[in-house]
C-alpha cells in the first residue's frame, strides 16, 4: 500500500515554567492516499499537538520538535524551510479547526477569504467561479450571494462549512480536521460529518481526523489510532477496532460511554488522571490506571506489536500473538431500584412558562421585538427522578433552567415548587427557598470563583442559608461534602485552578449539595469533559440521587447521557416542548419527526438494531434551527420536516396523548385527548 | 523636647497609604493568586531595576513627610511652655541642611564660584566696577579659585570610593543572605548573581542600586561645597528644590488615586452589577462629569479655594499648612476628574463577571448582593484597579507639572517641578540662558516617570489576563 504521509517517531516538547512537557513522545503513523484516519484521544493526549507539528504550527517559542520525520512523498516536512512549507500548507495539506467562529477573519467577505488560498495565477473571474463551486460543494445554499457576505452573517454550521470549502478549494491531498464538529450541535455535526465523508469519497483526498468522540471516529474513519499520554497505544482498522479493542485503555473508553445498554449499571471509570508528561516514563504509561497491570508494566515500557494490521502497545499481547486475552472482569454495580416507580411526589411544576427577551433598537432603545427564548413550556419533576430536557443549542433549554431557578425573570407562566409560586416571590422571600433548588453548570472553569479557596466556596452557601451553627460545624460539613463527591479533604485549602475539569465539576456538585437541595438543575454538566471523566461524574450524580433522593432537571444535547440517566425526557424545539414521555417511550418509540431526526443525528457505536435503522430512515435534519425572534408560522419545525403537510404551515399542532405519560405535538397524530 | 511633631493632612494620608500598601503586601503574600503575578514582576529585570529607583524616590518622599517644629534656641520652658520655631521642617531638610542653608544672592551656574549676573561693586578707591562677585558658600574652603578643578576631582574620587565600598557591602550582604543550600558559599551565589542566573534579577537591581548610591555619595561630597545644579533667582540651591519636589510629585501621583478609588470602585461595581436604573444614574453622572473639560473644573476648584483661604487667613497659621491644604485639594479635584475612566472599566468588567456561572451559582445559593459584590466581584476586578493605579501614576505626575505651569497647580511657594518649570519660563528668555532649573526639573521628573512606566508595564503584563500567553 502506498503511503501519502509517513510520520516517523515524532517527538514534540513544550518548555514551560515547570519544566519540559513531552506532549508527543514517539508517534509513528502512516496515512495512505484517500484514507481517513481518526486520531482518537482524550484532552491532553497530544493529538492536536502532533497535527500542528506536521504543519510547523506549534505555538512559538514554547513548542519544539525534538525528533522524528514527517515524510510527504519522500520529502521531510520537518526539515523544510518556512518558505517551502508555505507551498505545502493549504495546497497539499489543509487544516480545519474546532472553532469556526474564530477561524474566519471578520472583516473580509467569505469569497475573498476563500479566494485568497487559490493560486494567484488564476484570473479574478476564474477564481470567483472556483470559490462559488466549492461553496456549492459544501452545501451552502445560494453561494453567489454568500460570496459577498461577511462571517457574522453566517451561522455556526455554515461557518464550519465555509472553513471546509476553504480547506478544500486548493484540492489538498491530505485534510487535517482538528475536532471540526465539537463546537457544533448534534444535528449540524451529523451534516458536517456526512459532508466530509462525501467530499472525501469524491475528491479522493486523505483525512486525518482528530477527535475525542468514539462514535464520531466510528462514523468517519477507515482506521483508528488511539493516543494516550503522547503515544499511540493502539491502531487498527475501524472494523477490527470497534469489533474488539485490545488495549485496556481503549476497552475502558468503550465501557465509559453512557448509553441505553448500560442503564442499569455503573459506568466504567478510569481511575486517576492522565499522568504528567514532564516525567521520564519507565514502564507503561497507563499502568497506574490499568486494573490488569502487573509488575512488568511498571518496570518496562511495552513495545509496539502488530498482528494482522492491528497494532497495540501493551504487555498483555507480548507472548501469545493474536490471542485475545480474556475479557477483564468489570465491577458492575447494579444501579437498580427506584427505576420504575413513576409515582414519586410532584416536586416542581412548571406551567406555560415563557421567557421573552426584548430587543432594543435605535437611539431611544425602543423595543422592536422579542426573542421568544421560552414560549409556553409545561413540565413536572417528581421527587427522586430525573427529567432530561433535550434539544439543539439555542432552543431555550438553558433559559428554562434559569427561569426555574429565578435567575432570569419569567415573562409569563407559573413555577410551583412544593406549591410555592417561585415566580411571584420577592427576592428576600425567595432567598430561604433557594436552598432547595441548586444548579450545576456546563463549564467547570467558569463556575468556580478563581479567587476563593475551596473551603470558602463550600461554606458560602451554608452561611447564606444559615446551615451549620458555627464556623467549626460548617467546616466539618465541608469535609463531609468533599468525601461525598470523592475528593480528599486536603482540597479545602486549595484554589480552583489547582484542579482538573472533572475535579472542578465535583466541587460544583459539592457546592450545590452544601445547602441540602431537593432539585438540582444540571445544565450540560458533562459536555466539557472527557469521556472517562464524564463517566465519573454521571456515576456520582446517579449515586447521589439514590442516596439523597435528589431530583434532577438534566439539560443536555447528549442523547447517550439521556439514555443512561433519565427517567423522563422532554424534547424542546424553538422555545416549546414537542414531545414528552418516559425515557423508553421517547427514545424507543419517538413520535415527533424532530425527535426522530435528533436521534438519527447522534453518532452511535451501539447496536444497530432495527429500531435504530428505522430511526435513521427518518434522516438527519436538514438546515439549521430558525431564529426564535421570528419563528416560522404554524408548526415551528415544518421548514425542516420531511413529513410536513399543508396544515403544518398554518396551525401550531395541539397536544396528542400517546399514553398516560407520553404526549406529542404534531399534526401527524390527530388530536386526541388533551393532557391538561 | 527639642522639637514638636507636626502632622499635616497629606502626611497622615501618606502614612495611611503606606499602611494600606503594607497590609496588601501581607495579604498578597498569603494568597497564591496574588502572589503569582507579583512573582512574575519580580522576575523582570527591567521592572526591578526601575523599582530600585522608585524606592529611592519613595524614601526621599517619606523622609520629607516627617514634619516638626524645632525649639527656638535660647528659649526656656516658662509659663507659656516651650516656644517653637514657626518654621515647619522635615527630616529631609535636616539631612540636606547644607543644601538648604547655603543660599546665595541670586543665580549661579552649576559648580560656579562666582555669581551668574554681574554686580556693581564699589572698589576701596571709591570707583565702581561691574564684576561677578564670589559666591558666599560655593567653594568657600578653596584658597584660590584655580584649585576648583582639583578639589572637584578629589571630592568625586572620594564619592566614588565611598559609594563603591558601600555598594560592595550591600552586594556582599545580599550574597550572604541568598545562600540557599547549606553547602553553597556566598562566593558561588555572587557568581550566579553576576551571570544573571538568579531567580530575582539581582544583577539588574544591584546595578541600578549602584548608580543610586553613587549619586547620593556625589551629592553628599560635592553638595556641601558647590551648587551642583546651580542656584535660582533667589539664590536657593536648585538641587535642593528638585529633591524637595519629589514629595509633591509622589503625593499627586498616589493620593489622587487614593481619593478617587472608592468612588470608582463602588460606583463602577454597582452600575455593572445592578444594571437598570442604578446603571443609568451612575452612567449619567460620569458622562456629565467627563464631558466638562477637566482643566475648567480644576481652575474653578483651585480659584474658589484661593478665595476661601484669603477670607479665612487666620485658619492657616503657617505657610506649610497653606501649601498642604492646597496640595490636598488639588489631589481631590484631580481625583474627581479622573475617576470616570476607571469607573467605566469596572462597570464593563462587572457586567461581564455578573453573567459568569459562579456569580449565578452564588445567587442560586441565596447569597446577598452586597456579599456577592464584596466577595466575588471586587476581588476579581482588583487587577484592573492595580493596573490602572500604576498606569495613572506617571500621568498624574506630569499633570501636576502642566497645572502648575498654567498657575492652577500647587501653591506657588511650594517646591514642585511644575513651579520650577513655570519659573524657568522667564529664565529661558534671558541671555545668556539660565538652563539649569529647567534641566533639573526635567531630569528628576523624567527619571521618576520613566521608572514608574517601566514598572507599570511589568505589572500590567503580569496582572492582565489578556497579556498572558
Structural class by helix and strand composition of chain A: alpha/beta
- Stretches of chain B where pLDDT is under 50 for at least 5 consecutive residues are none
- Tell me the Rg of chain A in angstroms: 26 Å
Order of helices and strands of chain B: EHHHEEHHEEHHHHHHHHHHH
Count the E strands of chain A: 24
CATH superfamily of the largest domain in chain A: P-loop containing nucleotide triphosphate hydrolases
What general form of chain B does the structure show?
Answer: globular
User: What is the 3D form of chain A?
Assistant: globular
Q: What's a concise summary of this model?
A:
Chain A has 676 residues and is an alpha/beta fold. Chain A has 22 helices and 24 strands. The radius of gyration of chain A is 26 Å and the shape is globular.
Word description of this protein:
The complex is a heterodimer of chains A (676) and B (469). Chain A has 676 residues and is α/β, with parallel strands linked by helices. Chain A folds into three domains: 5-92 and 172-317, P-loop containing nucleotide triphosphate hydrolases (Rossmann fold), CATH 3.40.50; 107-169; 346-664, Rossmann fold (3-Layer(aba) Sandwich), CATH 3.40.50.300. Helix content of chain A is 30%, strand content 23%. Chain A is built from 22 helices and 24 strands. In chain A, a hairpin with a 2-residue loop joins strand 11 (305-307) and strand 12. In chain A, helix 4 (110-116) packs parallel to helix 7 (156-169) and helix 21 crosses helix 22 (610-617). Chain A is globular. The termini of chain A are far apart. With 469 residues, chain B is mainly alpha-helical. Chain B folds into two domains: 104-222, no CATH class; 244-453 and 463-467, MetI-like fold. Chain B is 67% helix and 5% strand. In chain B, the strands form two sheets. A three-stranded antiparallel sheet of chain B has the order 1-2-3. Chain B has a two-stranded antiparallel sheet with strand order 4-5. In chain B, helix 1 (9-30) packs across helix 2 (32-42) and helix 6 packs across helix 7 (186-194). Chain B starts with a strand and ends in a 6-residue tail after the last helix. The relative contact order of chain B is 0.11. The model of chain B has no long low-confidence stretch (mean pLDDT 87). The chains are: A alpha/beta (676), B mainly alpha (469). The A-B interface holds A 62, 402, 405, 407, 430-432, 434-435, 437-439, 441-443, 446-452, 456, 460-461, 464-465, 495, 497, 508, 511-512, 514-515 and B 31-33, 356-358, 360-368, 371, 375-376, 379-380, 469.
